[in-house]
């Protein structure tokens, strides 16, 4: 540690500290002694509460309390605050977000510091109610204490409206079942684009998650995002036949769902170039209405296959199916063959 920084921390001379840092660079904030103590540890040993508060209020110093990766600094500071009747000030600092809207808890979660997380929750359970990037953390073994500590059912909402269940499904964490058990209502929570956890499970082909979510609540199959897309649309576009089977086993009529452009899962499969999904849907009986469904432009799945020339491998599959009306016209009065001819 720079000698002037160490001296300033020992003597609670914040002005001297800032002068030294301004002359030598912000990296001095994060230097440590041979024992691994940073300036916050040094100040805490001398019971310099005001000095500590000034450090933590500085944008480059706000992570010092939790960046060391152990609970010693947190315990020293909280015990000191209690002994000096400064607990409210301590909580204020613990809850203070940095420029990324991270509090001490979020920072500890992202850094994987389990002991710090548990101590922070113990000292201030309301930290769990402050939503941000915590939804992206990957510490499955600390989900449970957070769930118990939080007073808000949606505490885990983070950037772009993501909840902890969204993130846990995304990363295939074992913790997502704990979340679902403790907070079953989050199965219907949507992010900023209207995706539920089922949308994410369908998108990433997580069969186990889809099956478990449907065991909990099959009605989520019918939830649509802001584009009117269901989990079935997403699975079809991504080419996940196994997911489609799971969804349709629980809700056979889900094939009838259309998005904001009046497109079915078959349309989505064609747009995504998913020949296997197209074949799977065509093998499903009694889908005549779905197969020739026209979107807002009047295009059937066959029209779209022609429009997406890179997916022409799908055209024969559709054209050979006797249920497909090859002579259907769109709003431009064109058949699929007309579209093909216009590209020659």
Automatic annotation (TrEMBL):
Signal peptide: none annotated. SMART domains: ANK. Pfam families: Ank_2. It comes from the Eukaryota. ANK repeats lie at residues 100-122, 193-220, 227-248. InterPro entries: Ankyrin_rpt (IPR002110), Ankyrin_rpt-contain_sf (IPR036770). Transmembrane segments: none annotated. Keywords: ANK repeat, Repeat. PANTHER family: ANKYRIN REPEAT-CONTAINING PROTEIN ITN1-LIKE ISOFORM X1, PROTEIN PHOSPHATASE 1 REGULATORY SUBUNIT. This is PGG domain-containing protein.
């Amino acid at each position: 540690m720079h000698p002037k920084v160490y001296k300033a921390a020992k003597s609670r001379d914040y002005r001297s500290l800032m002068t030294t840092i301004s002359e030598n660079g912000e990296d001095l904030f994060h230097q440590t002694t041979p024992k691994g103590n940073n300036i916050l540890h040094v100040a805490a040993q001398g019971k310099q509460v005001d000095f500590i508060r000034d450090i933590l209020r500085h944008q480059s110093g706000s992570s010092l309390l939790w960046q060391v990766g152990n609970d010693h600094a947190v315990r020293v500071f909280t015990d000191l605050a209690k002994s000096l009747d400064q607990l409210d000030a301590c909580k204020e600092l613990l809850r203070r977000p940095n420029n990324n809207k991270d509090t001490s808890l979020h920072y500890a979660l992202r850094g994987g510091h389990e002991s710090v997380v548990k101590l922070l929750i113990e000292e201030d359970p309301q930290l769990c109610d402050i939503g941000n990037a915590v939804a992206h953390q990957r510490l499955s073994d600390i989900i449970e204490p957070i769930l118990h500590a939080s007073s808000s059912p949606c505490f885990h909402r983070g950037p772009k409206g993501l909840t902890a269940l969204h993130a846990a499904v995304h990363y295939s964490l074992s913790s997502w079942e704990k979340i679902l058990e403790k907070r079953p209502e989050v199965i219907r929570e949507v992010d900023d684009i209207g995706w539920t956890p089922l949308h994410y499970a369908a998108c990433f082909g997580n069969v186990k998650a889809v099956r478990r979510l449907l065991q909990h609540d099959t009605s989520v199959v019918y939830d649509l995002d802001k584009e009117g897309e269901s989990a079935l649309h997403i699975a079809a576009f991504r080419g996940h036949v196994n997911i489609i089977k799971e969804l349709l086993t629980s809700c056979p009529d889900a094939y009838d769902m259309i998005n904001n452009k009046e497109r079915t899962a078959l349309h989505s499969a064609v747009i995504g170039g998913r020949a296997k999904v197209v074949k799977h849907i065509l093998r499903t009986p009694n889908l005549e209405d779905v197969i020739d469904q026209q979107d807002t432009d009047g295009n059937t799945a066959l029209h779209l296959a022609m429009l997406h020339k890179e997916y022409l491998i799908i055209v024969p599959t559709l054209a050979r199916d006797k249920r497909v009306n090859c002579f259907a016209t769109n709003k431009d009065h064109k058949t699929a063959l007309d579209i093909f001819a216009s590209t020659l």
